[in-house]
Amino acid sequence: QVQLVESGGGLVQAGGSLRLSCAASGRTFSGYAMAMAWFRQAPGKEREFVAAINWVKWSGSRPYYADSLKGRFTISRDNAKNTVYLQMNYLKPEDTAVYYCAAPKYYDGGTYDYANAPTYDYWGQGTQVTVSS
């Protein structure tokens, strides 16, 4: 059983920054591989991919980003704290959304569809990010 809890959202002016956290409990990875992601959903819009990160014992870690967000957002993981982060800089009003952390039930360390929501089985409750103009 895996539980994910997001935090760090809030109200910020355009151009500002926020750092989101996702704390995981339970068995989050096999010991040789893991994968986690951030998605967001604005009112009246579909859930969209933001960023993902994996780690494989034999090859290390690799981040992935939505093309439109590259250069502004950074995903990272602290294995000691069992937490993933999303650093968001130069925020824009269109970044306003509920941000969700997600993880798959199984990940074998191979290639996967990291940007597709059905890939993930566990989801946090979400944290609201509001960017004012």
Fold and architecture overview:
With 133 residues, the protein is mostly beta strands. 0% of the residues lie in helices and 51% in strands. The chain contains no helices and eleven strands. The chain has strands at 3-7, 10-13, 18-25, 33-41, 48-56, 60-65, 73-78, 83-88, 97-103, 122-123, 127-132. It starts with a strand and ends with a strand.
Assembly type of the shown chains?
single chain
Report the portion of residues in β strands. Answer: over 45%
The end-to-end distance, rounded to whole angstroms, is 41 Å
* Category by helix and strand content: mainly beta
DSSP strand count: 11
Percent of residues in helices comes to under 10%
Number of helices: 0
- What coarse outline follows from CA principal-axis ratios? globular
pLDDT < 50 runs, ≥5 residues: none
Q: Determine the mean pLDDT.
A: 93
User: How do the helices and strands follow one another from N- to C-terminus?
Assistant: EEEEEEEEEEE
- Rg from alpha-carbon coordinates: 14 Å
* Biggest sheet layout: 7 strands, mixed
Please outline what is shown here.
Helix content is 0%, strand content 51%. The protein has 133 residues and is mainly beta.
